[in-house]
Amino acid sequence: MKSPPPLPQAARRFLASRTTFEPHPEALKIAAHFPDIAASVLREANCALPLSFTCMVNNQGSVSLLGTDLHTPASAYTPYFAPLTSRLNKAFPVGKSPWDLFKPASNERQPLIHSIPLAFLPSDDAQLFPSLHEL
């Protein structure tokens, strides 16, 4: 039997944004240590899901975890979002701008079209959308 195809990264990523969007001074430390902290939280909760993640902190201070198992969606970790967020806020306190509850990353796709001369585009966006919808 053939195994299912791997999930895209967007389907395996979940994130916690901050109340106020601003860089975190310990972003590299968070990225290095939070995957181990997250695995510890999940082990304590007797989670049977894979415990391996990579972590990134963007320039707005949001923390994202990417599950390294190619077949486990971020949504599988939903029951653990509250304890993960709590531990993140305790391990890396940010004062008046704590992290909000983890949530799955958006995996909506937006089309991108290159090389269309502007002269062919309608001046009113409302006229453009029905044409794109048909395509």
Any overview of this molecule?
The protein is an alpha+beta fold. It has a single domain, classed as Alpha-Beta Plaits (2-Layer Sandwich). The protein is 32% helix and 12% strand. The protein is built from four helices and four strands, in the order H-E-H-E-E-H-E-H. The chain has helices spanning 9-12, 27-44, 81-91, 125-134, and strands at 13-16, 53-57, 63-67, 103-104. It has a four-stranded antiparallel sheet. The longest helix has 18 residues, at 27-44. The protein is extended and about 60 Å long. The mean pLDDT is 87.
Task: Compose a concise summary of this entry.
It is built from four helices and four strands, in the order αβαββαβα. It has 135 residues and is α+β, with helices and mostly antiparallel strands.
By secondary-structure content and strand pairing, the structural class works out as alpha+beta
Percent of residues in β-strands: 5-15%
What's the story with the biggest beta sheet?
4 strands, antiparallel
Determine Rg (CA atoms, Å): 19 Å
| Strand runs, count | 4
Distance between the termini: 36 Å
Form type: extended
Secondary-structure element order, N to C: HEHEEHEH
Please indicate the count of domains: 1
What would the average pLDDT be, to the nearest integer? 87
Task: State the helicity in percent bands.
Answer: 25-40%
Q: From the 3D coordinates, which CATH architecture would you assign?
A: 2-Layer Sandwich
Q: What name is given to the CATH topology?
A: Alpha-Beta Plaits
- Helix segment tally: 4
* CATH top level class name: Alpha Beta
Low-confidence stretches: none
